[in-house]
Design goal:
alpha+beta
Length: 114
């Protein structure tokens, strides 16, 4: 096992980073502080049950990502809905964190946004 920053991605522009680690997200993000500087969008699954296994909450993930200027959207049947740091993942939910919501939503043209 290694960290994101040790994968030699630190100087690489990353358009989309998908994280699927069954609740270990906080630790992946903590080990990728330099990588996150060059990451435009992150896609991850959010569910309180997973976070509880490792003793943290979604708000701690938001605190890490806030340092890098990310905005947040949930993906549901209606499309993309903007959320803030008060969002609670009582059910398993897909979240997109992006640094440029205008550009992100343009890329997702045709998807509904609420």
């Amino acid at each position: 096992m290694t960290t994101l920053d040790k994968l030699a991605l630190v100087h690489t522009k990353i358009d989309l980073l998908k994280i699927d680690v069954e609740g270990y997200k906080k630790f992946v993000l903590e080990g990728g502080q330099n990588t996150l500087k060059n990451t435009e969008t992150i896609f991850f699954e959010s569910w309180n049950e997973h976070f509880k296994k490792f003793g943290y909450s979604l708000s701690e993930i938001f605190m890490i990502l806030d340092q890098f200027g990310f905005e947040y959207f949930v993906i549901d049947k209606a499309g993309y809905k903007k959320i803030d740091q008060t969002f609670d993942a009582d059910i398993c939910t897909d979240i997109v964190a992006t640094k440029n919501s205008v550009q992100f939503l343009k890329k997702m043209a045709g998807s509904k946004v609420s």
